[in-house]
Amino acid sequence: MDSNAQSLKAFLGQTGRVALVEVAATKGSTPREAGAFMLVSASAIFGTIGGGQLEYMATDKARQMLSPREGEMAAKRPEGDATEGTAKARSTARATPPGGSAATLPSRGRGAGIEVDEVCARLDVPLGPEIGQCCGGRVEVLIRLIDASLEQQLIAKAESEEAHLPHAYLFGGGHVGQALAASLALLPIHVVVVETRSEALEGMPETVETRLTPMPEAAVREAPAGSAFAILTHDHALDFLIVAEALKRDDSAYVGMIGSKTKKATFRNWFLKSAEGSEAQFGRLISPIGGNAVKDKRPPVIAALAAAEIMTALVSHAAEAPSSASADKAMAG
Questions:
Q1: Helices (H) and strands (E) in the chain, counts
Q2: What is the pLDDT of residues 234-267, one digit of tens each?
Q3: Rounded Cα–Cα distance for residues 73 and 94 (Å)
Q4: How would you list the strands of the sheet with 89-92, edge to edge?
Q5: Which is it for strands 138-145 and 167-171: parallel, antiparallel or unpaired?
Q6: Which of 26, 170, 207, 252 is most enclosed, with most CB atoms within 10 A?
Q7: pTM of the model
Q8: Do residues 44 and 11 touch, judged by C-beta distance below 8 A?
Q9: Residue 258 in contact with residue 287, Cβ under 8 Å?
């Protein structure tokens, strides 16, 4: 299973000299929050600070700093303190977008201050007509050339955040399960697909954890607090067993079951009479997953709606939990 931390390591190890572009501070409406970052090499980018003209300006300045022609840059990564012993100077932002020219966009870059030294730059950018964006806020961006110490800090932070990601368990790797796994794999979530059939786990996204087991309900009991459970197996009886386990946990963020009104009613009858469940527990069940506002049963559509539903539940649960501050930090990126 690949991870964001592994992708970060691969980028840092294969792209030569790299600059870290980080949102240091924000004011008003901005595309990303403070702490959001991206990495820029001479030919590639990892991550994003929100796109648009702001990101173009930051990428352009980062690549100027990476170029040997910019000051007395060495061919190797810098060592030690990024700002020690350097003189700062003011310059004007070069902010012409790809394919454009300063003549066609004469106002772009005005009002954007840039403070630069050999291995560090600080951009103070208004997100208004000055640069061709209409967010209305202001962003301070810090650009640093990455040395060995900063590289290790980035990797350690990525591994720590990954260890605290919220978990989403998908039970069933059928058509909807495959589509939902693909949708959730794009989000800051640790996705686990649990199946009793080995062939149903084939073709899952590389960032998704897969578990083959004859007792999928055991995964519910082992899941960390605050997990989301989406149940969509090939067997209604198995669905009922897994859902019952999930509903009896009072620390889950989401419990959803694929199916119809009839299936939900049948489950309720069984849950209350045979599984020793309560009405309060049953009331936490989301079924059908993804809601019924959109009358489209194609797997990718159901998956998109369910992914949004699950992500919303995870964020809400993290905000309500006692450790919400650390959980929210782990979900940012």
A1: 10, 13
A2: 999 999 999 999 999 999 999 999 999 999 999 9
A3: 20
A4: 45-47, 37-40, 19-27, 138-145, 120-126, 113-116, 89-92
A5: unpaired
A6: 170
A7: 0.75
A8: yes
A9: yes
